[in-house]
Structures are given as structure tokens and as C-alpha cells.
């Protein structure tokens, strides 16, 4: 599904190198977690995959089902089935949440060669998915993320994901700012989407999210590289001992 080889990335306007040879392979239906100290490049990896401006790829590749993502426009990446739930969801004043979702869903359907959803079908679907995430009707009418609490923004990201049904989902610290109940809602929302053909990359600081969303593989990222890969026990090791032991071990 997603294959990243030797990815090197620097800031476009500065001589700052952020990613220094990331290798990662995620198969269909797999859930991978990336943990790592602040500033290790986790968000940068997700931004570069989704096509955000400001970064320059100096080496390496990232393919989704064999298609080179790094050469595609952000919209084309989304159409190909890539979705990123942001660590800091953007506010879009003046654009209603519902309108935004409907436009995104229909653009996605068009890209897949499917018919647009009728207004009625769309409404039914969005209400059902919003209800599961305890997002009320009023939040659907407000401009995207404007005045939403941190937790509401994160739930809204998961609503977008549930509506778009992407094949490769990247969640960047979706658990940060969530209380225990909201974390359960978000995790249930993610788990409901798990399927044989859909993969997840879950970036998190905390093992507790991985109690709810059980990963197949856990990676530790440090200084722009994946320095260690293991099973769920690796997340427990981090929770107990922090990163110091692992970082010492890998030099
Ligand atoms: P993480 O998500 O693992 O905490 P980031 O990918 O956010 O790490 O950041 C990695 C490093 O790159 C940090 O030192 C960060 O300050 C720097 N960085 C990332 N994006 C930018 C940017 N647009 N401008 C300046 N520095 C950046
Ligand atoms: Mg960070
Ligand atoms: Mg980050």
C-alpha cells in the first residue's frame, strides 16, 4: 500500500534538514504507529506525504499502490485515497462544515468515477457518522473548525475521514487535547473504519491511544529517521522507560 524509501526532506527556504532517510512499508489493512521525541520529524513526514508547501524532497520516494505520491498535486493524492488528520486542524472561516464535507465527498467520488451523492443521501450519511462521534447538528452548520475546542476539531477530522473513506489514513497526534471520553469516541471511529483494504499510520506521543487503536507495528522516529521497529510492546517500553534507552541503544 504505502512504501517510503530513503526519504530525505529539508525546509524549502532554509538549510534545515528534517528527514534523513525514512524507510517505511505499510501493507493493506495494517495499522502502524510512529512514536518519537518532539521535533523528530513525525509531522513533517505526514505533511510531505500529503503535499504541503514549504518542504523540499532531496532524495527518496513515497508510493501509494506503486504510484509516486511526491509528484502528485495534493488533490490528486487525496483522490488516490490518502487522508491526513492534522495535528493542528485548520479553521476555514466562511465555509460551513457541511458544505465543506459535501464538496470534499463529491470531489472524491468524482475522482473515483462514482456518481455524486444526492443531497438527501449525503445528509443521512453525515448525520449518522456525526452522531457516532457525538458531533451535534449545530457543529455541522458552523464554519469549519472555527471556534471549535481542541477536542471538537479532532473529532471533526475523524468525521472528514469517515465521510471520505480513504484507503491510507494518517493521524497526526489526533489524541492530543482529547479527554478520555473523546479519545474513546475517536478510537471507536477509527476502529470502525479498519478493514482489509484500508491502512493507518497513527502518530502519537502516548501509549494510551494504542490501547484503543491496536497497532500491528510500532516505529520509533528520532532525528529524522526510523530508528527502531517492533510490535505493540515497543510502545509499552516507551511508556515505561521514555525514549532515552532506545536512543542510547541505537546510538
Ligand atoms: P514532530 O512532529 O516529530 O514533533 P516536526 O516534524 O513538527 O516534529 O518538526 C521537526 C523539526 O523540523 C523541528 O525541529 C521543527 O522545528 C522543524 N520544522 C518543521 N517544519 C518547520 C517549518 N515550517 N519551519 C521551521 N522549522 C520547521
Ligand atoms: Mg511535535
Ligand atoms: Mg508533530
UniProtKB/TrEMBL annotation:
What PROSITE patterns has UniProt attached to this entry?
Answer: ABC_TRANSPORTER_1, ABC_TRANSPORTER_2
What sequence ranges are listed for the domain ABC transporter?
A: 2-248
Signal peptide residues are: none
- Keyword field contains DNA-binding: no
Fetch the Pfam families from UniProt: ABC_tran
Q: Which domain of life is it from?
A: Bacteria
Kindly state which keywords UniProt assigns to this record, in alphabetical order.
Answer: ATP-binding, Nucleotide-binding
**To which protein family does this belong?**
Belongs to the ABC transporter superfamily. Ycf16 family.
Supply the NCBIfam families for this chain: sufC
Q: Quote the protein name from its UniProt record.
A: Fe-S cluster assembly ATPase SufC
Q: Which organism is it from?
A: Tabrizicola soli
Tell me the gene name.
sufC
Amino acid at each position: 500500500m504505502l512504501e517510503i524509501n530513503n526519504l530525505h526532506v529539508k525546509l524549502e527556504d532554509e538549510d534545515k534538514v528534517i528527514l534523513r532517510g525514512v524507510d517505511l512499508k505499510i501493507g493493506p489493512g495494517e495499522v502502524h504507529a510512529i512514536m518519537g521525541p518532539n521535533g523528530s520529524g513525525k509531522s513533517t513526514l505526514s505533511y510531505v506525504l500529503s503535499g504541503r508547501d514549504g518542504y523540499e524532497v532531496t532524495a527518496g520516494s513515497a508510493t501509494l499502490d506503486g504510484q509516486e505520491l511526491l509528484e502528485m498535486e495534493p488533490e490528486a493524492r487525496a483522490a488516490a485515497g490518502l487522508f491526513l488528520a492534522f495535528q493542528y486542524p485548520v479553521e476555514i472561516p466562511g465555509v460551513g462544515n457541511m458544505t465543506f464535507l459535501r464538496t470534499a465527498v463529491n470531489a472524491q467520488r468524482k475522482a473515483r468515477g462514482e456518481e455524486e451523492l444526492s443531497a438527501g443521501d449525503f445528509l443521512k450519511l453525515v448525520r449518522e457518522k456525526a452522531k457516532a462521534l457525538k458531533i451535534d447538528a449545530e457543529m455541522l452548520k458552523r464554519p469549519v473548525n472555527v471556534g471549535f475546542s481542541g477536542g471538537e476539531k479532532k473529532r471533526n477530522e475523524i468525521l472528514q475521514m469517515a465521510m471520505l473513506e480513504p484507503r491510507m489514513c494518517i493521524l497526526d497526534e489526533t489524541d492530543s487535547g482529547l479527554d478520555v471520553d473523546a479519545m474513546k469516541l475517536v478510537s471507536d471511529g477509527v476502529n470502525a473504519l479498519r478493514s482489509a483494504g484500508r491502512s493507518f499510520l497513527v502518530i502519537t506521543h502516548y501509549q494510551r491511544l494504542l490501547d484503543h487503536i491496536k497497532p500491528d507495528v510500532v516505529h520509533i522516529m528520532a532525528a529524522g529517521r526510523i530508528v527502531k521497529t517492533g510490535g505493540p510492546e515497543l510502545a509499552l517500553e516507551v511508556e515505561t522507560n521514555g525514549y532515552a534507552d532506545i536512543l542510547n541503544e541505537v546510538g
